[in-house]
Amino acid sequence: MKKICVFAGSNFGANSQFKTNARELGEVLVEKGMELVYGGSNTGLMGEVANRVLELGGKVTGVMPKGLFRGEIVHKGLTQLIEVDDMHQRKATMSELADGYIALPGGFGTLEELFEVICWAQIGIHQKPIGIFNIDQYYTPLLQAMRHMVEAGFVKTSHQKLFLAGSDAAQLVEAMLNYQPPILEKKWDEVK
């Protein structure tokens, strides 16, 4: 893995640990010689992880739709900024550039990006590692809901191996480096 796409909130959230661990992730990426690919914003956790990578001399590529957000401020100090037409192109471009994905805490947009890459892995579009950075149990309710999806018969058990979850940045990245795509059960039940 040379380039990691990070999905993250454009706000800092209510817990200072989110910001601390976003910076920690940036440190781990630089230590491992990995480039950061992300949404291109200077705000929130998005900006925090990018700033830390840049402070340590790492490379950062931002992908931002032209004129789409007034609240998200384009980061002016990136190694590369790619401007695209819309959100669909933003996500497609980030995915094309990335060798893996990590979701930091965030809101609806972060969850949408995370679930899209999980769905893409589920149907065979990619076999890249997907990490869920579960800072201070932020994603624990979501992980429980995902287990409930299996119990309710909407997700196959093997499909939960499409992503890794962890609360330590270095351990999560190491697990992603050692990731082997699972052999998946057939997604769809037999038509009766």
Automatic annotation (TrEMBL):
Species, as recorded: Ammoniphilus resinae
Protein family according to the UniProt entry: Belongs to the LOG family.
SUPFAM superfamilies assigned: MCP/YpsA-like (SSF102405)
The protein's name in its UniProt record: Cytokinin riboside 5'-monophosphate phosphoribohydrolase
PANTHER family, alphabetized: LOG FAMILY PROTEIN YJL055W
Lineage, top ranks: Bacteria, Bacillati, Bacillota, Bacilli, Bacillales
EC nos: 3.2.2.n1
Key words, A-Z: Cytokinin biosynthesis, Hydrolase
